[in-house]
Structure to design on (152 residues):
């Protein structure tokens, strides 16, 4: 079965040997590498659905494989976020997703602002701090310099 190239996403079918340097990669992670390598550059990234379809897997398996590639530092977190989106990242807790949603609506938010809001939400202050650390660990604070400064 041949895959016809589309005008909007030009493919170059070339497989990197980097996947062979990590013998513990499962078949889904290897397939995601192969699918991603077939795209020319970041401007023509496939959707999560495309990766799942081309890699013969579910979107949940594709998401897990993409997360594994980020953890191994084969795939930059920025690319992961573009493909999967912040709110589909199942590594994040609901608290972290809520803090992220608030930060996206208020890009210049400060830690003090979040702590004041925590008293209104029923969340304890340490849960908010843990959520911020979680967002930092998975690369989501790169766009929020004020919060990142507080952690480092």
């Amino acid at each position: 079965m041949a895959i016809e190239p589309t005008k909007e996403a030009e493919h170059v079918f070339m497989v990197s040997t980097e996947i062979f340097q990590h013998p513990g990669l499962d078949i889904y992670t290897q397939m995601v590498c192969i699918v991603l390598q077939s795209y020319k550059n970041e401007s023509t990234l496939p959707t999560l659905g495309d990766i799942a379809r081309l890699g013969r897997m579910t979107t949940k398996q594709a998401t897990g494989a993409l997360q594994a590639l980020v953890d191994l530092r084969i795939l930059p977190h920025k690319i992961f976020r573009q493909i999967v989106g912040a709110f589909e990242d199942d590594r994040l807790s609901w608290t972290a997703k809520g803090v992220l949603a608030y930060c996206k609506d208020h890009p210049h938010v400060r830690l003090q602002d979040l702590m004041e809001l925590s008293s209104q939400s029923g969340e304890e202050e340490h849960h908010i701090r843990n959520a911020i650390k979680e967002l930092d660990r998975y690369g989501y604070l790169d766009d929020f310099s004020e919060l990142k400064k507080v952690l480092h």
About this structure: The CA atoms of residues 52 and 62 lie 6 Å apart. The longest helix spans residues 59-71. The chain has eight helices and no strands. Residues 11-15 have pLDDT under 50 and may be disordered.
